[in-house]
UniProtKB/TrEMBL annotation:
The keyword Transit peptide does not apply. This is Aldehyde dehydrogenase. One of its GO terms (molecular function) is aldehyde dehydrogenase [NAD(P)+] activity. Residues 24-485 form the Aldehyde dehydrogenase domain. Belongs to the aldehyde dehydrogenase family. The keyword Nucleotide-binding does not apply. The active site is at 258. Keywords: Oxidoreductase.
Amino acid sequence: MLSFDPEKVSLPVGHYINGHHIQTQGAAFAVKRPSDGKIYATLREADAADVDRAVQIAHQAVKISGWAGCAPRERGRVLRRWADLIEQDSLLAQLEALGSTRPVSDVVQHEIPFTAEAIRFYAECADKYSGDLFPTRDSSLGMLITEPYGVIGAITPWNFPLSMASWKCGPALAAGNAVVLKPSELTPFSTVRMAELAVQAGLPAGVLNIVQGSGAVTGHALVTHPLVRKVSFTGSTVTGARIMSDAAQHGMKPVTLELGGKSPQLVFDDAGDIDVVAQRILRGFTANGGQACVAGTRLIVQRAIAAPLLDRLTVLCRSVQPGVTWDGDSRYAPLIDERQGNKVASVIAAAKAQGAEVLVGGERFADTAEGWFWQPTLLCNLAQDNPAVQQEIFGPVLTVQTFEEEEEGLRLAAHEIYGLCAGVHTLSLPRALRAMRAIEAGTVWINRYGRSGDFIIPTGGFLGSGIGKDLGRQAFQACQRQKSVLIDF
Ligand code: NAD
């Protein structure tokens, strides 16, 4: 039975530094459950001195413990044990379902296995990549060696707390770094549990520390700390720009930035079974209540099949039912909080003021107490400059635009700000490949929408959607720096 009592979950309160739960005296902040808006904990944020302590401990621990210098396969062994503990721990699943927007069934069936498997992927990388040898004079040897950065600062958003933490910590730890991670202040607890399990698995205490608090105070102190040599961030484009600027001014640190998106779903009249396509489009914009960076929120459909596709989508949207995340039967995610609810409502209002029509949804579900469950919403009659087409809404809202010719569809699919991903739905191979080439996005999915369990495929955005890659070998290699060496005999 997956259902659990939200009042009976034991919370790992505080920061997690050097293998201990630490309470500090920073500003207090309340943490609410998305499903019913109830405050279930109050935490104190880490100020600059607290962050300094966590970073200093990480800096020492990675050297003293031998984590950076041990045989890479030993790091791999610890990470594999960690992944096993993550899969076995029932508290972790409950903490994630309680505090995030993910229904517990989704956490258990997808989020936890996905998190554990990402860590296993990086355990395998630990001893697979080396430097290089260069052709030089006989009397010298030129080479490139790789080494860890030292301390990596990681900052994650609230929409997928566990898997985002695994994408940051897996490659960084496998490459021999220490990590100081700040989860979102909206979803602080599951990441702490993950770090406890890492220590149980044999990760030396202090090599992974978690600091709690806001972006402006705790996040800023982490990004600008002189001993943090690299920053890996996932979150909004506005925050990413701020972090890039802070990192440039405080040590010219490399940054990996996984940012926002406004991804198109380009459906041609030869897309195949229309029921299958409708299901795919629905999942693409309603998964996690639309609160996914990769959400496919712009439907661009060839006119000949627009009416039947919208008919099916309307029926599917109406069948969605809300339910609290701790109920094992719930499948549909609430919005994270009231602020996010107001944002969704305001963009829909602005879209309507510019001529948009609501085909279905457009409102919060009634009778969901203080939880912000938003009805799957279809908006049509939209010009390209309508705010609902332009802005990342981060809610279950799909804009619908139609086109006649391929070229027009591709033009509508382009976005000035974002280039995270795109879906192309057609059974014509030449058409699919033309679209793949034309679309300016870091990922293009053809006849599917969403990631697979292939961790080897990196993910990352173009344009305002980011810099660098998470997942794949690329993320591991980005956690190592390269040193050129020339030896004269
Ligand atoms: P956000 O940018 O508001 O916050 C993300 C994290 O950054 C939080 O931990 C926050 O406390 C911290 N932060 C805020 N200001 C900071 C600062 N000045 N310095 C350091 N840290 C700071 O984003 P959010 O609302 O938590 O998450 C939603 C956003 O994340 C969406 O835009 C979504 O598209 C994006 N996202 C992107 C990906 C991806 O892989 N591209 C994945 C998930 C989410």
